[in-house]
Amino acid sequence: MMRFNTSLSGWKRAALTGLAVLLTAASAAGCSSTSASQGGAKPVQVASAVKVKFDDKLEQDADLIPSSQVNVIAKTGGDVAELLKKRGDTVAQGDVLLRLDSTDAQRNRDKNRLSKDNLQSQLDKTAQDIVTNKGVLKNTIEKLQLQIADLEKAYNNVRNDYDTGLAAKAQLDKAETQLKTARLDLDTAQKQLANLESTDPLASLRIQIESTDLSAQDIEKSLSDFEVKAPISGVLTDFNPDQGITIAPGYVAGVIQQLNPIKIHADVTETTAKLVRGKKDIPFAVQETGDKGTGTISYLADVMSSGSKTYVLELSAPNADLKLKPGMRVKLQLGGDGKQEGISVPISSIVKEGNDNYVFVLVGDAVEKRKVTLGRVSGTNREALSGVKEGEQVVVSGQQELKDKDKASVSK
């Protein structure tokens, strides 16, 4: 009997061991199935975007940008002979930034001056010759007129003698020929004088001199272009050339940014635009330093941008000490009385990329990456002026691993 019981007890132990193995396998299969069903979804934690009342005054993020930015362009080409400014220098309009080698242009100017001097000498000599020739012709005409008067008397006397038989035909012909010749000489002299008085023999030389004057002006303009000057006052934020390099006409030598005054740019919502309209000045605070100032409104768009659904706001602020730099951000103090409602999201949900802010909104089993316009701060929350609606779930943990349209699941 004892041997039977021992055999039965061993059988039970074997059965129990087999059952345990089956249960373990089943449990493992179930876990594998659950894991496979959740594969690809990234675990995140979310919080609701809620409507709250903000106690502080309305603020608006804005960017500092140059009030004007102009390229420094070389109008002529040549070798860089001298650099008079360097990157970062403050320059005034008209300051010479660099000089190009102008040796060839100066040589052309000297040649042109010599050419003009030669033409002027020819002009003076020709003018004097004309005066002399006119005098000679007038004297010649006067002499011929007297000669013709004498020849006419002589011809008449010979004609009378010929008619009475006292002179031969040859004598008459000779007297007639002398008279005709003198008259022809007089006619030629008179025409030459008339031609001198009715025309301008110096016109061609005057035109050539005027041409050299125009060439001189072009050369002087070219010589002035060998000095590359600042087109506006400001800071030389970029300056590329090195001494000795050869540049071509149109070469961009640098960039000047006008920083006094400096421009403040913001994209504001319709609600914010209503607060701004009618104002002349708006106070601001620099986010990096806390320095405060006041900007004068220079532009507020009348039409909303169809893409961003915002209005462009621009202000001008004095910046004599140049402490305000492009790229800095400021908060515009837009005012507003009492408490105002707004959509709030946790600061931990905000993802910053450059100057833009984004949140990930959980929609179903995927996330949407949305750009948001931020407003006031309330504790650990930030006002979302656009991009998020009340009640939507924003990701507050795990968003650094997310991309737009990624699958996500809420972890407990």
TrEMBL record:
Belongs to the membrane fusion protein (MFP) (TC 8.A.1) family. Keywords: Coiled coil, Signal. Gene3D superfamilies: 2.40.30.170, 2.40.420.20, 2.40.50.100, Helix hairpin bin. SUPFAM superfamilies: HlyD-like secretion proteins. Residues 343-398 form the CzcB-like C-terminal circularly permuted SH3-like domain. Residues 70-238 form the CzcB-like barrel-sandwich hybrid domain. Residues 264-336 form the CusB-like beta-barrel domain. It comes from the Bacteria. This is Efflux RND transporter periplasmic adaptor subunit. Residues 134-199 form a coiled coil. Residues 1-28 form the signal peptide. The keyword Coiled coil applies.
